[in-house]
Write a structure and sequence with these properties.
Blueprint (H helix, E strand, L loop, with lengths): L3 H12 L4 E5 L2 H4 L12 H4 L3 H12 L4 H14 L4 H11 L3 E6 L5 H5 L4 E3 L2 E8 L5 E3 L2 H11 L8 H6 L10 E5 L9 H10 L2 E5 L11 H7 L3 E6 L11 E4 L2 H18 L4
Parallel strand pairs: 1-2, 1-7, 2-3, 7-8, 8-9
Antiparallel strand pairs: 4-5, 4-6
Helix pairs in contact: 1-12, 4-5, 5-8, 6-12, 10-11
This protein binds adenosine-5-diphosphoribose.
The site of adenosine-5-diphosphoribose has 25 residues, from α2, β8 and α12.
Length: about 270
């Protein structure tokens, strides 16, 4: 666990910044009970083909196991709620420090926590996109899980065509697909994410192994434009060498301590 001295040092860095951006990965949702990908026991640790081909490769490789793999993944997200790490980022936004969250996560937890500017580079699991007109629509959480529960457990052998036949039809009459980005597809909100990375004076690098691009290029862009990089992770990542400060631990524990220390600084400086 990090020392109080490092927590206070991080809070002082935050207090001196005015355009903070958070780059988050699966690690920030780990304390909400959602499996990460590359940790031991993580999704790609259990299904190595996922590391280069994502969930599509896993479903294709294990069609007979796919229904319960998919339901396991969905049940993890269904049970998940924002954790203290997500809420600390909302505090930083409401205190006027955090301007945007750029996330690789598709679990919608940053939006549910209350952050107002969230750029979801890998899409959002609850959002459907029309294959004809491109219109996007978020499905209400309970309805989303009911939709999948109606047919996935009954599937003997997984098929994307069959899964797609249960998705909502767009008002234009087009079929829809999940608006989550599959490996090899273009990411979403890339321009907005690059703009934020180039404009920030501090990037918080939270819970990512930093091995998937273009998201992993964002800290380098921020640094090249003079921003500081502060990383929180229980272990070093591929981005740690670029970071100015590395706090070893869980975002759900460390971020709230930084916010607490920041509030003390604000009181001392008469900011509140
Ligand atoms: N707090 C902070 N970090 C944590 C925590 C925690 N409680 N638990 C785990 N971590 C860290 C791990 O040490 C690891 O560095 O989170 C990181 C998770 O790494 P990955 O599983 O690789 O997830 P991520 O970096 O988000 O993967 C990026 O890869 O497969 C694709 O689309 C998928 O969006 C995902 C992308």
């Amino acid at each position: 666990m990090v020392s109080q001295e490092i927590i206070e040092k991080s809070a002082r860095i935050v207090s001196g910044c005015r355009h903070i951006v958070a780059l988050t990965g699966a690690g920030i949702s780990a304390e909400s009970g959602i499996s990460t990908y590359r940790d031991s026991g993580g999704l790609w640790d259990r299904y190595p083909e996922g590391s280069s081909g994502g969930i599509v490769a896993v479903m294709t490789r294990h069609p007979e196991d796919a229904p319960q793999i998919l339901m396991g993944f969905l049940n993890g997200i269904r049970a998940a709620r924002p954790n203290p790490g997500h809420h600390a980022l909302v505090d930083l936004e409401r205190m006027g420090y955090l301007r945007a969250v750029i996330t690789q996560n598709i679990d919608n937890l940053h939006r549910e926590a209350g952050n107002s500017r969230v750029f979801e580079m890998h899409g959002n699991i609850y959002r459907f996109r029309c294959l004809e007109c491109g219109k996007k629509k978020i499905m209400e959480r309970d309805k989303f899980f009911e939709t999948f529960e109606r047919f996935i457990p009954k599937m003997k052998r997984f098929s994307f065509e069959e899964m797609g036949s249960h998705f909502p039809t767009c008002p234009c009459g087009g079929n829809t697909r999940l608006d989550a980005v599959a490996f090899g597809e273009p990411v979403q909100d890339l321009n907005e994410a690059m703009t934020e990375a180039g404009a920030c004076d501090l990037m918080l690098v939270l819970g990512t192994s930093g091995v998937v691009y273009p998201a992993a290029s964002l800290p380098g862009i921020a640094k090249s434009r003079g921003a500081l990089l502060v990383e929180i992770n229980p272990r070093e990542s591929a981005l740690s060498d670029q970071c100015d400060l590395f706090l070893e631990g869980n975002t759900g524990e460390i971020l709230p301590l930084i916010v607490l220390s920041l509030k003390e600084i604000m009181v001392k400086e008469g900011g509140v």
